Amino acid sequence: MDFTLPPDIEDVRNRIAAFVEREIMPLEADPASYDAHENIRIDLLDAMRAKARAASLWCIQLDPENGGLGLGRVGMAACYEAMNRSIFGPAVFNSAAPDDGNMMLLEKAGTAAQKARWLAPIARGEVRSAFVMTEPHPGSGSDPSMMLTRAEKQPDGSYRIYGRKWFITGAEEAAHFILMARTSDDARKGLTAFLFHRDQPGWRILRRIPIMGPEEHGGHCELEFDGLTIPPEDVLMNEGDGLRVTQIRLGPARLTHCMRWLGLAKRCVEIARAYAAERQGFGVVLAERESVQIKLGQMAMAIEIGRLLVMKAAWELDRGGLARKEISMAKIQAANTLHQAADMAIQINGARGYSKDTVLEWIYRYARQARLVDGADEVHQMVLNRFLTNEETGFWSWPVAVS
To answer: CA 388, CA 24: separation in Å to the nearest integer?
Structure first.
């Protein structure tokens, strides 16, 4: 496993870092940059996106034929981390959730016609998208086998959708949706993925669910389906391939979350170090106190562990593996590291950290969801235990080159 970045990827990473420093970070200090839900204002975002496209720093996660830079997962790990030095960064480069995961799924699983209709407008930044899977109790959450939303096949081959979904990220602003619904009771082939547009009748947004915030554009919404009709050409892959679709999407999408979270964790350490270097108390600057040095040293190590786990998972994906075990480990580590980094930085900054004078309180609130989204910590820990049970000491095997 060699994580040396090729010169072309390092060039993109450096240009992203410079763009973030020069163009995006100054916006964070201006209250006028934020919308009502504490994200970057849409008109301002559109202006920044135009600059990112002009700088050829757009959609790095997609292949060139689909409007991206084709950097691969290892390249994405380095660049996503650089993007999320700013809380606004990923959205500016069209590499924010849920759009990036949806785009990568459509790129891999969509037909040529589906890519032209559903992927290309997202990749061009013309529309936003949502992945519609999670349901209220007793429906599916981390366990897709509990899904209650159903798709009833009609004599003409179309499907009618009935059910309820919730915590659907971005739904209020989305135009393109990927929907998971039950088409049979088969344990492995019972779910199917569908594509639909917001203007199609037969569904509605019940509410934008109030959350701790800050929120992605379009919030987290509860949806109701009462006969949405989807033609057969808008089935993603084939009927019964829903679990395969979720595996294709959720693994890489979890990993891109981790990449971004590590960028935010590094930003927390950056803010903490800067304040500790200047703040004096009881005759000494904070940076000279052993307790502060220990906090910063432990956090630096935790971030580096997360980076190595993310890179190993990215490397495994790039060489054609599923990286399920690696992604679960990275997801647990990165989510907890982000939360710890924000908490540590607020503690070092004292009252300043608890205020809105820095982005630390924004990151702290955002960080709490990291241990829940795309599988709670406990789910991934159970996944790892299942691998351990099946592989025993092979859990820790090294990749072996084929001679």
So the answer is: 43
Residue in this structure with the two tokens 């019972």, named with its chain if needed: 190
Residue whose structure tokens are 């939303």: 149
pTM of the model: 0.96
Closest CA to 273 of 286, 282, 291: 286
Distance CA 106, CA 89 (A): 23
Distance CA 81, CA 386 (A): 30
How far is it, in rounded angstroms, from Cα 11 to Cα 186?
49
pLDDT digits (tens, 9 = 90+) for 168-188: 999 999 999 999 999 999 999
Of 115, 113, 109, the residue nearest 68 (C-alpha): 115
Label residues 80-108 b or e (16+ Cβ within 10 Å = b).
bbbbbbbbbbbbbbbbbbbbbbbbbbbbe
pLDDT per position as a tens digit, 31-88: 999 999 999 999 999 999 999 999 999 999 999 999 999 999 999 999 999 999 999 9
